[in-house]
Amino acid sequence: MRENPHLKDDPTEYCPTCLTEGTYQWQGSEHECDCQLQLQLYKHYLSAGIGVTYQRLNWEDFQGDRDILSRVAEYVFEHKKYIQRGIGILFAGSLGTGKTMLANLALKEFVKEGYTCYATTFANTIEMFTAGWYDAEERQYFRRKFINSEVLLLDDFGRELKTKNNLSVSTFDNILRTRIQGGRPTLLTTNMDVDELEEGYGSAVLSLLKESSIVIEMSGEDFRSSSSSRTLQEIEQGETRPII
Question: Is 101 exposed, middle or buried (0-12, 13-18, 19+ CB in 10 A)?
Fold first, then answer.
């Protein structure tokens, strides 16, 4: 609520989908809005760090390899056995292939299952980690979100290797090892391939990643331009996707 002052407790005062009008247009039809549900999902997803764009996407929006989609769906369906054993997913591969989308869709399911979850970028991780050097409250927040969350989504790691930032590398190593020791799974996305990760982080860290993750390597065309066109078309047609 502090970071999103537009939020209200009462769905009659604020609804992120129908804007308290009671109905919204979607897929050519008018739908009655469950404002209470939409507001609660919105708040829970924001608290878990899930961006507004991903809050409204579903599994059908993924345009990539259907076999990969099936593997992720199986992980979500069998979440109890994977999360209990601390097994996450490492999504590796080229830009725009849907790595971040799949990771966020999975995290949304875990939020709805009642797990404590947090999604963040690796750049934000470093910023929040260093903020804790001088502020006890920030330090506690970092530990609660990054270390103690039952499921953590760490998006776009590996970019720091190109800047040769030793702090970034050591921070990632510390988070990963602490979570593995605590049996807490981490969902990771990177634009690097497995060989590049090994070269940048070393065989020891890569071994930890493989031990605690299902490795999914993704390739193919960049789907971001078609996703942008889809969004613009929806806006032009006056349609609003519900939060799901």
Answer: buried
Reading the block at residue 172, the tokens are 């990632």
Q: What are the chain's domains?
A: 1-63+223-244 (no CATH), 65-218 (3.40.50.300)
Task: Report yes or no: 198 and 99 within 8 Å, Cβ to Cβ.
Answer: no
By residue count, the chain amounts to 244
* 28-47 residue pLDDT tens: 999 999 999 999 999 999 99
* pLDDT at residue 168 in the model: 67
| Residue-level pLDDT at 124 | 81
Task: Estimate to the nearest angstrom the gap between the alpha carbon of 100 and the chain centroid.
Answer: 6
**CB–CB of 124/90 below 8 Å?**
no
What pLDDT is attached to residue 160?
59
Is residue 242 within 8 Å of 28, Cβ to Cβ?
no
CA–CA gap between residue 202 and residue 166 (Å, rounded): 13
Positions of the chain with pLDDT lower than 50, given as ranges: none
Report the C-alpha gap between 99 and 142 in whole angstroms: 24
